[in-house]
Design brief:
Elements: E1 7-11, E2 19-28, E3 33-45, E4 49-51, E5 53-57, H1 60-97, H2 103-121
Helix pairs in contact: 1-2
Length: 122
């Protein structure tokens, strides 16, 4: 089990978690990008309005759900980085096996082709 501490914020009035801070953006002529212009001091709850935000540590099912989302995000990022290399390696493997198709390696070739197709859809 992971010992990663995960925090979140909630409204001190209604305990809702749909909260944040309002801010403005400013266009930077030099970088040609929108940048953080000003962050307001007052927290905001989308359920009850201006509030003070309280930090809390995620526990139980809520923590498990966030950890699962983090793992999924990490896998997607890894796949985005290495997906083409994987597809190329599998394509090379299929090409190498194709001339010597036997009953034993036919399943390997078929599975590799299926993975390549799935990668192509991603």
């Amino acid at each position: 089990m992971s010992t990663t501490k995960l925090n979140a914020y909630r409204c001190t009035k209604c305990q809702g978690t749909d909260v944040g801070y309002h801010a403005t953006s400013t266009f930077d002529l030099v970088t040609q990008e929108w940048v953080l212009g000003h962050e307001f001091d007052t927290g905001w709850c989308n359920d009850c309005g201006p509030t003070v935000l309280a930090i809390y540590e995620l526990q139980g099912d809520e923590r498990a759900a966030v950890l699962a989302q983090q793992q999924k995000h990490a896998r997607q990022a890894l796949f985005a980085t290495n997906g083409q290399a994987l597809a190329d390696a599998l394509t090379s493997m299929v090409a190498a096996f194709a001339p010597m198709v036997t009953e034993e390696n036919a399943l390997i070739v078929a599975n590799a082709k299926a993975v390549i197709a799935i990668i192509g859809e991603a």
